[in-house]
Amino acid sequence: MLGKHTLSVYIGRRFLTAIFGVFGLCSILIFMIDFVELLRQAGKYGSVPAWLLAWITLLRLPAYTEMLLPFAILVGSIGALLMLARKSELAVMRAGGMSVWQFLRPALAVALGLGVLSSIAFNPLAAGARDRAEDLYAEAFDRELQLLGKGSGPWLRQDGPDGQSVLSAASVQSHGTELRSVTAFVYDENGKFAERVDARTATLEEGVWVLDEAMVSGVGRQPESYPTYLLSTYLSPERVADAFGSVISLSFWELPDLIYITEKAGLSSAQLRIQYELLLSRPLLCVAMVFLAATVSLRSFRSGGIQTMVVTGMAGGFGFFLFAEISRQIGTAGLAPIWAAVWIPVLLVILVSVTVLLHQEDG
């Protein structure tokens, strides 16, 4: 029993080292690319200290790299299994009576643990770091984060206790709580058009948008000017930035509440639901990558064809990621249930990989 435990720890450590090695190399590459892009923007928008650009890049790095974990597990698992096979350690394990399921068990445990930690711990850390990076970016370049667009006049449909309304703003400041050059079309509780409001600014407070210097035009009446106009909403100042921001800036623990509030405000929550399901499925996805890696990495070096098998495994991995992305887009568009769009590709790659391993192991 002690020998089996020692062997499991050894195999798990080899997989963990290989996965972290791939993850670290990819992280360095992403850091360098993002840092160069910030340097280019600094030259375009104004002088910013290099240390501040490096700090912003470092804060943004976790949000980018957390999506690389499944890829790192795939490549790291292929590398770890190939190294075990190259040193004939896999052959010795098989000669000792171990099946593929036994020596893959430590790797599966490592992948499952990394997937769980990525969703419940690393993701909230990455979301908080990215929020801080966005604040520093806005201060460094003296440009407000424009979550609704850069003066292009996007439209936002929302709901409130008094009925629905549609807003457009030329620009957005303070993480979505302050709008400039606002136009609002207000509907009554029965869904009929009530009036149009043009305002210089709009500020989101608890339960209402406060529109300043508003010009109100109704059907069959003359436009009237008001110093302040209140427009009801279910959005809150704490959630509006998340509702309009990038989903990679959202924490796993915040998503359930945010989905509820977004739907109550009359906004589409498809992207938020997709992100939540992706985080829930990440542990199983990491396990799937180990199975996929095993299908192309267990052949003995003496039998040859290793390069072909590795290329096949990498191609299969990229094919899976492409298929998963297409499925995610289908779910976001509402053409398939969101749970199916996220979980079916993962379950499919596990079933196919296990079938291949059964064939290789038992013929």
From TrEMBL:
InterPro entries: LptG (IPR030923), LptG/LptF_permease (IPR005495). Keywords: Cell membrane, Membrane, Transmembrane, Transmembrane helix. It is a multi-pass membrane protein. This is Permease. It comes from the Bacteria. One of its GO terms (biological process) is lipopolysaccharide transport. It is found in: Cell membrane. The chain crosses the membrane at residues 15-33, 67-85, 279-298, 304-324, 336-358. Its main location: membrane. It comes from Hyphomicrobium nitrativorans NL23. One of its GO terms (cellular component) is ATP-binding cassette (ABC) transporter complex.
